[in-house]
Amino acid sequence: MAVVQLADALGPNGLPYALPIHPNLVHFTIGLFVIAITFDLAGALYPLEKRLFRFLQLPVTRAGLHDVGWFNLLACAVVSFFTVAAGFYEMLLAEPIADAVSSIGLGSAATMVWHGVGGVAILLIIVAMTIWRGFQRFSWRRDLGRQVQWTYLLTGLLMFVVVGVHGTLGAELAAEFGVHITADQLLASGANLREALP
Amino acid sequence: MLELLPALNDHNLPWMDTIHPIVVHFVIAMAVIAVLFDLIGTLTHRPSLFEVSFWNLLVATAAIFVAIIFGQVEAGLAEPYGASREILNLHSTIGWSLAGVLAVLTGWRYVIRSKDPARLPVAFLGAGGVLVALVVVQVTLGNQLIWTYGLHTVPVVQAIRAGVV
Predict the structure, then answer these.
(1) Could you tell me if residue B75 is inside a domain?
(2) Minimal Cα–Cα distance from A151 to chain B, Å?
(3) Residue B136: inside a domain, yes or no?
(4) Domain containing residue A27
(5) Residue B10 lies in a domain
(6) Quick one: three-class SS letters along A84-111?
(7) Do A184 and B155 touch (CB under 8 A)?
(8) Could you give the number of structural domains in chain B?
(9) 8 Å CB contact between A183 and B155
């Protein structure tokens, strides 16, 4: 599957650089999304947890919690375009270990296709949710204490499950199919790691 | 006693896959975005972003201790070889240090926020710069452990068990 014309410029990990970019951007997409939804949930349930914050002597405003929900999601939407772009570039150069089957019974091609298609779908959903969140913040619920709809929070929680499965597929591309891992690719080519990777 | 421990799978782990790299999402993303929002908040005079930074910093500090717990367990099962031994030692040392740095910064930030949530001293921005630099170094080391040396990946665990690494 590798782009053959590039072969000379690629290292043993199949990339023109030592460490893949996509998995590092993923930290931001997942971290920002999960914390955004969590803080909007905290803002929505504020009447219940008010006493806890007072007990902890931690001054807090409901609007502050919803600010985290909005700005983190906005940042998530921006960075996720780069996450998906880097993912597709690195997928084009991926050379999964032949004949391996993942712990959930998928081969490398199926895992990669699901992870690629899923990545685009998740990006679209994140962007749609950011627009939805913006309408709630600046228009529909501008004057209300609870800045988000329950359906929005429910969608966010469902996305936790989707992102969890999606991330597992991505992790399997690395840890089971050895995609872009120098040591795994060297082993697959029959190299002795004691010499090739001292 | 040892037979009471759960069996290890083909990742040399008692659970499906490494958990440490998942928990660190919430350290890396929250620490870096906190510093970024502090910078944007300062440059555009938007104190509401300082509040967002404070909460993100608090999450990063809570998450790093969870990350360390899983990191220590998974490091103990990683069976590093060659130069990855040194990298893992350095990654552990910086990881614990980063927990201290994050906790101190969050405490300092709590005091700043209690006095005047709309103002952020330049010194804190500077400290944020140091924090991001530390995170970048730490992430690079962690990246090398997985993407160069493939610790906890199936092919490397297989090779280690076969005695060829």
Answers:
(1) yes
(2) 24
(3) yes
(4) 21-196
(5) no
(6) HHHHHHHHHCCCCCCCCECCCCCEHHHH
(7) yes
(8) 1
(9) yes
